[in-house]
Amino acid sequence: MLPWDRTVTVGHVSLGSLRACTCFAVPSCPSDSMAVERSNLLSMMKLSVKVLIQSTLGLGRSLDSDYPPLQQFFVVLEHCLKHGLKVRKSFIGQNKSIWGPLELVEKLCPESADIATSARDMPGIKTGLGRARAWLHLALMQKKVSDYMKALLDRRDLLSEFYDPGALMMEEEGTVIVGMLVGLNVIDANLCVKGEDLDTQVAVIDFSLYLKDPQSNESPKDDGKMTAILDQKHYIEELNRHLSCTVTDLQAKMDSLEKTNSKLIEELSAATDRINALKEEQEQLKLENLSILQRSKQKQEVTQQDNEVELETYRQSRQGLDEMYKEVWKQYKEEKRIRQELQKELELQVGLKQEMEVAMKLLEKDTHEKQDTLAALRQQLDQVKSLNLQMFHKTQDADRIVQRKDEEVQQLEGRMSHMMTAMKEASITISGVLGLESDLRSEKEQRQSMQKELRREQDNSTELRTQLQQLQGLQKELQDLREEKKQLQRTCEEQEQALQEMGLHLSQSKLKMEDFKEVNKALKGHAWLKDDEATQCKQCQKEFSIARRKHHCRNCGDIYCSQCSSNELALPSYPRPVRVCDTCHTLLLQRSSSTGS
Q: Residue 448 in 3-state DSSP?
């Protein structure tokens, strides 16, 4: 159990062979309990340091790690460092280790970097508590425990991340313990840290070392007394040196405080002078404010009169504007109706134009196809003409051959008749007659074949004549299509001219519509802005003042300064030229120029 728990057990106190277990209760209030715990730990630290120094005087001021008073000193120092330590959360779980504040010493004292790295890299140590115990052993061997603790206590703003407000390290008891640790510089400690199990050591304070039996005390020798006196002398000198250092630090702090005090006094005198000057300026500003108020009242009266005059003119102009608005609204409706009709006609014309374009494309395709067919038919006609010539020549040759054959047949018939007569007369042999008959048959067959060929040629000539007639009809259709194409092109040109005229008419109607809309905005949308609503000019963004007055634009109704509204133009709602802002002036001029053109 730790000494700052609600109930603390201090057990195993050995007095001879007696073993006892003592319990004591801590006050219930947290602040009182923290104070009691701090006083208990301070007294325990005093006892442990005193016993350690007294016991080492007889050993030649050299210690090892197995020495019981040294082990108890490390246990008490560990309890002092754990007092009021905050629980830090991590991914693994809650962690409450003194290694975090001891790591800060490496940043504050660069010479402690060696022992910090050796404590981190030491084999066999896995926990932060083990690293902290190894760091304390190495710092004691360097004889710089008090210096490192003093550097740590000087930066309590960094320690507040690790300790609660009532912890021992955050109060004055910590500085007292650092002063006690200065006496440990007379001790030479030769400790072996590698072989020890620093992670699993149980930190329990054993009070048996601090409870002594008066019967067991023996009278020390004179040599022991001398060594004790010398060690006490060294201890007192070390304390004196530490105290002188603290006195010099306090003296330097006093000097700095005196300097800051003198600076603050000078600043206070300067502040009083400034306050007096500011009071005088305040009185002057009050007088100026009164004069400005009087002027503003006078100007307000003048502006109120101007506003009344403007209101009367506005009311008079409002009646004329209402009448004009009614007339303009009627014209607007008529123009809108005309525009809708024109849009419908335009859509019809566009549709007709698209249909005409499609028809033109189809006609072009048909003409191209028919021209191709004409070219093919002309080629066929040429071929037919050449074939007709050939057939004509062949028929002429065939007619000649037929005439020859007819003549030969007639000659043969005459011969036959002569031969028949000769056979009758002279009884010609049968063999000669048979040969003549075979010649006659062959000539008949040739004559029949020639007649068939003549019939075929006549059929071909009739077909060619029909194709010629078809070609002549196609040529007539081509001429008709060309005439239709010319008529369609004329109609397209006429429709394009009509569309251009319609576009001009539409643009003029759009301009009139825009004029009507702007007049409508002037009558309805643009409200007459009040003087209280405008604090700066709408165009140049300059604040209005006594020198820079407010002026209304009679077209848009906004408020401008005199420089941004110095133009005058005649408006439909006003019979004479009135004040207009720069933007409205340019817009009205552009509109008038566009309508004139």
A: helix
Q: What sign has the CA pseudo-torsion 231, 234, 239, 240?
A: positive
Q: Could you tell me which of 467, 151, 524 has the C-alpha nearest to residue 318? A: 524
- pLDDT at position 89, please? 61
The 10s digit of each residue's pLDDT in 418-464 is 877 776 765 545 555 566 677 777 777 877 888 787 788 778 778 87
**Look-up: residue for tokens 């009185």?**
283
Whole-angstrom Cα distance, residue 58 to residue 467?
149
pLDDT at 233 (0 to 100): 65
Our measurement of the distance from residue 42's CA atom to the centroid of its chain's CA atoms, rounded to an integer in Å, reads 60
Please check whether residue 369 is in contact with residue 478, taking contact to mean a CB–CB distance below 8 angstroms: no
Tokens of 66: 């197995």
Tokens of 159: 């320690």
pLDDT on residue 90: 53
Cα separation, 97 vs 77, in Å, equals 14
Burial string for 264-278 (b: 16+ CB within 10 Å, else e) reads eeeeeeeeeeeeeee
Rounded to a whole number of angstroms, the distance between the first and last alpha carbons of the chain is: 106
Task: Give the per-residue pLDDT at 19.
Answer: 28
Ranges under pLDDT 50 in the chain:
1-28, 91, 93, 212-219, 428, 525
Residues 6 or more apart whose CB falls under 8 angstroms from that of 155 comprise: 104, 108
Dig out the tokens for 219 from the structure.
Answer: 């009278």
Q: Do 53 and 183 form a contact (C-beta atoms < 8 A)?
A: yes
CB 72 within 8 A of CB 204: no
Q: Locate tokens 């499609």: which residue?
A: 358
The 3-state DSSP class for residue 29 equals: coil
pLDDT at position 16 is 30
Q: Which residues contact 458 (CB under 8 A, 6 or more apart)?
A: none
Amino acid at 532: D
Helix (H/G/I), strand (E/B), else coil: 83: coil
At 583, which helix (H) or strand (E)? Answer: helix 582-596
- Written as six digits, the tokens of 425 are 């007369």
Query: Residue 199: enclosing H or E segment and its boundaries?
Result: none
Q: Is 560 exposed, middle or buried (0-12, 13-18, 19+ CB in 10 A)?
A: buried
Q: How far is CA 250 from the centre of its chain?
A: 57
Total count of residues recorded for the chain: 597
Whether the CB-CB separation of 339 and 506 falls below 8 Å is answered with yes
Amino acid (1-letter code) at residue 38: R
Token pair listed for 492: 């397209």
How far, in Å, are 47, 65, 106, 454 from residue 138 at the CA level? Answer: 22, 11, 14, 140
CA dihedral 386, 388, 391, 396 (to 10 degrees): -110
Answer yes or no: are the C-beta atoms of 191 and 135 closer than 8 Å: no
pLDDT given at position 517: 64
How far apart, in whole angstroms, are the C-alpha atoms of residue 436 and residue 409? 12
Q: List the beta strands (DSSP E) in 27-130.
A: 62-63, 88-89, 94-95
Secondary structure of 271-314 as H, E, C letters? HHHHHHHHHHHHHHHHHHHHHHHHHHHHHHHHHHHHHHHHHHHH
CB 239 within 8 A of CB 182: yes
